[in-house]
Amino acid sequence: MDSAVQWFANNMPSFLSPEAAIFLVSMVPILELRGGLLLASILKIPMVQASVICIIGNILPIPFILLFIRQIFKWLKKTKIFRPLIEKLEKRAMGKSDKIKKFEFWGLVLFVGVPLPGTGGWTGALIASLLEVDLKKSVPAILLGICMATVIMLIVSYGMLGTIMQ
């Protein structure tokens, strides 16, 4: 992920402001908030401003995933082209779902909140949707997880990493 963020920082389109760039990176699966905050620290965007932009960017796709992904996947699996990709995504997401199945709310909070590869708001919302976790549990759990990931990534991006990169 660090190399993807560094590549984006080096090749950021000239028409994008730094704030727009971190917003977009925060919306992208895999990079999400973690990538947005790393990019913000590289671009020297103030921590509070970066946090707000990255949180909003990371939260924005979540309701759409929770509400519509099962129907979209069902429709895409009917096509020969997308079926293998969708089945792979479902298999990968469900392979990470053990803790969420067992602990539901807190499992989802930790899954989204601990910034490891393959975790985050997107995957957490996908798993919650596929497991049909109630929206009253999944939405607060994902939001709490995103807040937890924000704190961890601020420490990493603006604390330890910020010191190393200067």
Automatic annotation (TrEMBL):
- The secretion signal range is none
Q: Which UniProt keywords apply?
A: Membrane, Transmembrane, Transmembrane helix
Mind telling me which residue stretches traverse the membrane in this protein?
21-42, 48-69, 105-127, 139-161
- Identify the InterPro entries for this entry: Sm_multidrug_ex
Matching Pfam families, A to Z?
Sm_multidrug_ex
The protein, known as: Uncharacterized membrane protein
Species of provenance: Lactonifactor longoviformis DSM 17459
Highest lineage ranks of the organism? Bacteria, Bacillati, Bacillota, Clostridia, Eubacteriales
